[in-house]
Input
Amino acid sequence: MNFEKLIANITPEIYQTLKLAVELGKWADGSVLSKPQKESSLQAVIAYELENVPENERTGYIAQGCKSSSK
Output
């Protein structure tokens, strides 16, 4: 299965599981994610969010604008 098909088959529940695993660095059973697992999981989370999550709720979102523009 290629990456695009894999992402298309991610459910919201799987997305939440992957996101939590990346955040905590371990799976729900307590086992630690390896570096390749963490990288792959983060890639899947970002790809899923690109198609399914509003921009301002995505991982790594930073609001545009700067403090000096509000003066």
